[in-house]
Amino acid sequence: MDDSVGSDRFIDSKLFKVLGGYEGLCAITIAMIFVAFIIIIFIVRIIQYPHLRQQVIDSVIGSTTRSVHTRILKAVVFFLFVAGLAALTVYNVYKMIHDPPKLQPATFEPNTLSPSMLFCPSVETELQFISAYYYDNFDGFDALELFRNNNNFYSLDDGFKIIVGDNGKCHFFDGTLSLKPKDAIGGYYNIQFQSNITSNIVTFLGDTDDKMDWTLLIPEGNVYNEVGIEILNDGGILQYTESRRQVLDGSYTYRSFQTSIIKDTFDIFKVDEQIISIGVIAPKRVIKEVEIPSFKLADLFSSIGGYLSMWVIVAFLFGGSKANPFGFVTRFVFINQDRAKLLKELEKMKDDRNANLNALEKEIDSITETNNPSDQDTLKNLLAKYYVNMEFYENAVKSLGT
To answer: Which segments cross the bilayer (predicted)?
Structure first.
């Protein structure tokens, strides 16, 4: 049971939503496994093979085909770029953790919750609670039916209690204890008190929250818990609108109320001069706002991806790398397998080597706009040094003594 509760709390937590839910956690897990696999292989291979260490050094500071000044500047730019990437990542992670949430577009949802109500006399007199009823809608209400056997209403008497505070002795209706049908939407509340003198009734509508203090002159709670206040002259009818704000971790939904008076007396329904009737019309729909993370994991990846695209500036300043048909897997993982396959392909090409060389010479001529070079070894060395990455080829051939 405890594990289940802990799991539910994590699902509702800010961290879970910031990471993108189950999809984000799955993506992070796969990415971490992949990155760890690459790093381990990389470290093992550069320890095993010295020429790979030299490739890494050349990729950072530049090969010997560049001047010392250029190589130093490239190394400085590279480390500044890495430092910028680290700073950007730290900053974005900080935003993910500490940035205040933003709101989804507001939506409407059915109003199945009862408001909490506080009724206080405006003069030094006492109200005597008589009864409270809930109707599905205002049109179904009939004051005379309160004294007849009618199944169109639900008694709410059990939800009332006395609260003594700055407003004197008040009657409080706890909306969380409402006995109305749970799936009932909106509706109409009729509350009746008895008083021996005419009295204005101060009516407060709010949320039953642990931090709500109903004993204050004007009850207050959380910053998002606004209380609706109206003064009814010897009873009357009011209606309210409600907005709800669900916090990021889903642990609580704050409710704010705004009230307005429809009729400040209840003469049309009065059945006794000493009875004060108060009607509250509940809306069918309420506005709901849901907090969402202002910066999520997907935003972090997008920001880092945009930053990495700036690497083209390094290529612009120092030139691009040589063409490299052999990737990380070939050079660091399946070294022996790919080397054997390469040598096998070279063996097949022995019989038509001359034809391939002629085709290569023609292609080089069309690109470099030069005549057929007389020294093929010079051309090969030129291509290997500046244009074509031949490290894997040369190491594969050297390993077999050819």
So the answer is: 20-44, 72-94
Tens digits of per-residue pLDDT, 67-82? 677 777 777 888 888 8
Query: Between the CA of residue 85 and those of 74, 131, 304, 305, 334, what are the distances in Å?
Result: 16, 68, 7, 10, 31
Domains along the chain with CATH numbers: 1-99+295-321 (no CATH), 107-292 (2.60.470), 328-402 (no CATH)
* Residue 240, token pair as written in the block: 């309210």
- Amino acid code (one letter) for 191: I
Joined tokens for residue 147 = 């004294």
**C-alpha closest to that of 108 among 291, 223, 242, 253:** 242
Annotate 209-245 with DSSP letters as a single string.
Answer: -TT-BTTSSS-B-STT---EEEEEESSEEEEEEEEEE
- pTM for the whole structure: 0.59
Which of 204, 295, 215 has the alpha carbon at shortest distance from 257? 204
d(CA 29, CA 81): 26
Pairwise CA distance, residues 156 & 172, whole Å = 12
3-state SS record for 256-318: EEEEEEEECCCHHHCCCCCEEEEEEEECCEEEEEEEECCCCHHHHHHHHHHHHCCHHHHHHHH
- CA 314, CA 78: separation in Å to the nearest integer? 8
Reported as half-sphere exposure (CB side, CA atoms, 13 A), residue 138 has a value of 12
Gyration radius of the chain's alpha carbons: 39
pLDDT digits (tens, 9 = 90+) for 266-305: 554 555 567 888 899 999 999 998 888 877 777 777 888 8
Mapping DSSP to helix (H, G, I), strand (E, B) and coil, where does residue 205 land? strand
Cα–Cα distance between 133 and 114 in angstroms, integer? Answer: 12
- Name the nearest CA neighbour of 212 among 178, 169, 175, 187: 175
* Cα 14 to Cα 293: distance, rounded to the nearest angstrom: 7
Residues 201-232 pLDDT 10s: 899 999 877 778 888 888 876 666 789 999 88
